[in-house]
Amino acid sequence: MRRPTRGTPRPGATWSGRIAALAGLCAEHLHTGLFNHFLRLVNTARPAGRQRADTAVRRALLGPLLRLEHPYWSRRCTFGGKRLARPSALVGRQRAMGILADVLLPMLLAHSRRENDAGAAGKLHELWRGLPRQEGNVVTRRMEQVIFASRREAREVVNSARRQQGLHQLYRDCCRLEAGCEGCVLYLAHQAGKSLAPL
Questions:
Q1: Which pTM was predicted?
Q2: In which band, very low, low, confident or very high, does the pLDDT at 2 lie, cut at 50, 70 and 90?
Q3: Does the pLDDT at position 1 exceed 50?
Q4: Which of 19, 39, 122, 179 gives a 20 to 30 Å CA spacing to 109?
């Protein structure tokens, strides 16, 4: 695949490319339902050889996102743009992992709970526990600065996607208070130099 140069967006990095890619995925499963497709992937994922079960489920769910192609957007960065010699990924691994952690897992888990599907729920919980840390965003970086004494300490404690989601929850629960940082127990502990050890 063609690697983007500095200042040139990768085709999938544009909103138009992402929308086209996801529209194609929806169209592919128009009659059976995209959600049902992902549900089937969870239920049929089997580890190969020594592969862990959560890795098999993760690969199954990421596969459709990573294989997305579009006849126009796989080879262009803008409308009317120059055609690239080789196709480029419309949804990269990092974006696909974000979709998995922020969209697919919560929906699939809620559905499996509602349907009392303990098998699917167990697979999804195992996947959630083992999902690696993702690239941070404004909220996770801010919370790591507020809570931890150093970036190293933050990386040691917040070492999974699940713990990153915990930072989002702490932000929603604590950082929207009218009292501000001065009234926040996490901020005060950080200011006092107390280390937050991993659980």
A1: 0.79
A2: very low
A3: no
A4: 19
